[in-house]
Amino acid sequence: MAADPWSKKLDAYFDGELPPDEARAVQEHLRGCATCATEGMTKLQLKLAVQAAGRKFVPDPAFRARIQNSVVGRRQSSWLPRWFPAPTIVIALLIVGILFLFVNRDRTGEQQLMSELADLHVATLASSNPVDVVSTDRHTVKPWFQGKIPFTFNLPELQDSPFALVGGKVSYLHQSPGAELIFRVRQHQISVFIFQERDLPEGRGNEAVRTALSFEVRTWRHNGLRYFVIGDASGQDLDKLADLVKASG
Predict the structure, then answer these.
(1) Among the four residues 18, 25, 76, 80, which has the most C-beta atoms within 10 Å?
(2) Which among 228, 247, 248, 224 is positioned nearest to 238, based on CA atoms?
């Protein structure tokens, strides 16, 4: 069991319920406490398993529309004015309902994607071996990925910037391989994820700014790839690193 009081905070941390200051304190503790890191990984794996199980039982929009149509059909005779055409009301309600379902599905899918990325980032923070290739040289890190992922990418030039490259590893999202690059700025660690856009669920996110589990997130699309910059550093730091990655092409 993890040492008190940290054990009591792990669930709230992985659920994104802690204030930013407390979340950063837990994150720093996980880096130095093997017991808490082990318990945290167990909780994270359980969380991912529950999310995966939940996705199998989400009704599709067609099913929701049939149910909504059935309910409207049963009630329309009792409350519709005699002078208003019933089919018009039904069609209008279905259109509104379908639009709501598509918008909500898009938002839910994007939030779920950000949550999964936050889980990957936390797993890296808690790992005793956070990267598979350890190097500050981009000309060493980039070639390491050849043959391990189905695409290529460029690493930014960090000279005269506050960022340092730590290394990288292969990460999997929706069972698809991608690159996770680790950067450090002052005492903060930032993950840059790169995946093929076609392997990810449809959703908004072009130049989007979001938060997930107390982490800042920057994301954009370029040449069939989707980039994510995630960490507990300031929004300005994430913007600067994102700009450097974009400039690298």
Answers:
(1) 18
(2) 228
Who wins on pLDDT, 104 or 166? Answer: 166
C-alpha distance from residue 31 to each of 83, 116, 127, 169, 178 (Å)? 69, 20, 8, 18, 24
* CA dist list (Å): 15 to 108, 111, 128: 16, 13, 22
Nearest one of 172, 201, 190 to 228, comparing CA atoms: 190
Residues 25-47: tens digit of each pLDDT = 877 777 777 677 777 777 676 66
* Residue 156, burial from CB neighbour count under 10 angstroms (0-12, 13-18, 19+): buried
Contact 170, 177 (CB under 8 A): yes
pLDDT tens, position by position, 69-112: 665 555 555 544 554 454 444 444 444 444 433 444 444 567 78
Domain segments of the chain as ranges: 1-57
Query: What are 6's two structure tokens?
Result: 């940290």
List, as own/partner pairs, every contact residues 147-156 make where C-beta atoms lie below 8 angstroms and the sequence separation is at least 24, other chains included: 148/177, 149/177, 149/178, 149/179, 150/177, 150/196, 151/194, 151/196, 151/224, 151/225, 153/179, 153/194, 153/225, 154/248, 154/249, 155/181, 155/248, 156/241, 156/244, 156/245, 156/247, 156/248
